[in-house]
Amino acid sequence: MSVQDDLTAVERSLDALVQAVGKLQTRIGGGLDVRRVRSDTDHLRESLALLKQGLAGAPPGRPDKAEDEMVPIPDTPYNAALWTDAEDEGLGAKDRHAP
Q: Which of 19, 29, 64, 80 sits in a 20 to 30 Å window from 54, CA-based?
């Protein structure tokens, strides 16, 4: 069996595991333990993609992510209520004074 065959077998097994975890989640709900197992299967999938990438000689990085997603930041000011009772770093609150 070649390395590629082994990787394909692992992918199939992982797909079956993800499907079984999905069925389990629908039966018993999405409690903390099930979410943890779901997260673990996601990590296994990411690790397998990294392994395949490394074996293919590709540079390390995030699998299946060609570019970083652009996030627009609005020019409008934030709501001042967000900063109520906030202290400026190192300056203290408005009613206190530096020594």
A: 19
